[in-house]
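Review box. Two proteins, two foldings.
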Amino acid sequence: MIIVMAQKAKTDQIKAVMARLEESGLSIHASKGEERTIIGAIGSKTRMNEMTVESLPGVEKVVPILEPYKLASRSFKDEDTIISVRNLKIGDNAVQVMAGPCAVESREQLLTVARLVKEAGATVLRGGAFKPRTSPYSFQGMEEEGLKLLAEARTLTGLPFVTEVMDTSNLSLVAQYADILQIGARNMQNFFLLREVAKTGKPILLKRSPSATVEEWLLAAEYILAGGNPNVILCERGIITFENYVRNTLDLTVVPVLKHLTHLPVIVDPSHAIGKWRFVKPMARAAVAAGADGLLIEVHPDPARALCDGPQSLNPDNFNLTMAEINSSASAMGRKVGCE
């Protein structure tokens, strides 16, 4: 439930309401605005219902949250969540482009890509140090050495970076280096991992599982939010349908749907969704038009020699063309790419 305190509610009244809710075993999430304090109470209502809470001094009204995802819902927080990453803001009117290789392969490869995506207008560097692969014989990533190279690229370019954390055993290591922690599609419902990444307090990019419904996806985000970390970024990366010409089906309908249901920022990964580089550009442009807060795009200096996901990676020339079209699409929507 959401408890809206009266405009002139006193501090001791607010504290008393919060104490009463906590005594009843409810988890409390308070937000103090310029005029009113809003308290979100999550948990079983068997010991305290809306009518009981509404009778407490200083309470103006109580609004039940009907959605199963409480903290992620617009009912809990009507204004958009804006997440700060160094000098960037994800979730405001600007479009943030996260670009780089699927996997860190070498120092030369990564620094080359970092410089070119920075020059083209990207605002976040992406790159995998730990790579979950379907085959145990495929390239698994450079692990800590890859993290060190990503940190070096950040120093040289000023770009913060996002990289995937695969399990709790490497979480603390990845969190030491990364600006944004990515939870991959395979781990979207790894609830123990979600609880643990919440404890880092760092921005979490949560990818949608290819077979997950919107409700399942938002409930996964709820694990992180309920763990005390409000910095969740949702990432659409394609769903499984009957179509097999492309890797997955990019569900752009989910962008306005999520904007309606949740206050969390939404970005789109056309590279993993499509799986073919030639279709990344039009889908990136369409994602911006649909209202996405950002894009996650794979770029490699020589895709034909990439150790993973070469077919979906853009080469430097194609990335420059894609950025030009992203800028045009954003401009047509009254937006811009990068910092406002």
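Next protein.
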Amino acid sequence: MNHLALLRTAAVIALVAAFLIASLAPKATVAAQSGRQPPKKKVEKKTEEEKSKDEKNKDEKNKQPTRPEDQEPAPPVPRNLKDEQAIKLSTQVVNVDVTVIDKKSGRIYPSLAQKNFTVYEDGVKQEITNFRSGEGPMTAVLLLDNSYSNNYIRGSYYDPTFAQEIFQSAAIFAQRFVKKDDNIAVVTFSLKPKVIQDFTNDSQRLYSAILAAYRDTLNFSESNVYDALAFTLLGGKAIQLFDEGSGENEYNGLDEVEGHTAVILITRGIDTFSKLTFDRALKIASGAGVPIFPVSVGNLYFKKYEHRLPAELRSTIYMAQVQLKAFAERTGGSYFEMTFEGQIPAIMQSIESILRTQYSLGYEPTNTRREGKERKIVVEVDINGDGQPDNKLLDLRHRQRYSEPNDKPDPKKK
């Protein structure tokens, strides 16, 4: 009996266990199939007062300015919009860049102040309103002769490494010379000027642009030096190296730029087909107030082949050198001759030294006459501060004259 009771108890326990297992099996299966679930948020009903408060907070949030990091990125600037630093233009101030050199030692004076300088216009003392040392920002154009005449003299004496040396040296100079606040442009010319790189302070862009200009073969045998100089100083229309199909674009000239400016001109100097005459180009250069630093690379040909050149060509080369010297002297720049191969880097280094030690003076003329007449500029420098000018001991290089504005120009004169 006891044995039957035990069997009955065991059977009841087994049935109860089976029932429990059957009831738990579906839940376990669902949990295994659904994976790990995030906890559900407890939903609470809000009162009317809380809803009104939420709406007010939402409106305040919408009124707050959007943070820069929350805004969508601005679209890229189109290629035709300049990303270079702005250049300040001047219409009233007369700029005079001055280099102060000791006659005996050739040493450049680098640390003079405004009080050391006095400027006279037609004998009348002027008040210096602007003064910058050579360490200040520089705006310059590197003007490179890229005509086929760089490699040939009357169809012979071909030297393929000559132009390469010029452009390579110019590229290294531009890359090393440019500083943060500078604006340097690169222009080449043969028949017409061609803008290789607009004003920028990006040294790598300048370097790459000059090397690209060396590989530019869409040029002519003409070398229009006068026209190219006038374009650089006065502005005008020119094509761009990588956008020749779009036609000519308008550019401003350096004569409108206030501050420290310069043109570095590397050329043989022999003008072949310019619309402007030498006298007209010299007058433009004299009035622009921009120092010109010509580098005569034609002197290398002259020294190398002088005995083989006809008399007419020797005279032409000599005259070109005289004209380049005149551009330098009348504008306050310096003239250099490339006589030996490999000399360009040293010349460019000398130009860099002069430009970084020049003083830029500005004044507003007391003479208000506007008849287009020429005015003479004289600069006196007192080195030791004794109140007496030391010009007899110095080699002063600066623009010597300029033409005043003309309100009634003669239409017959170009």
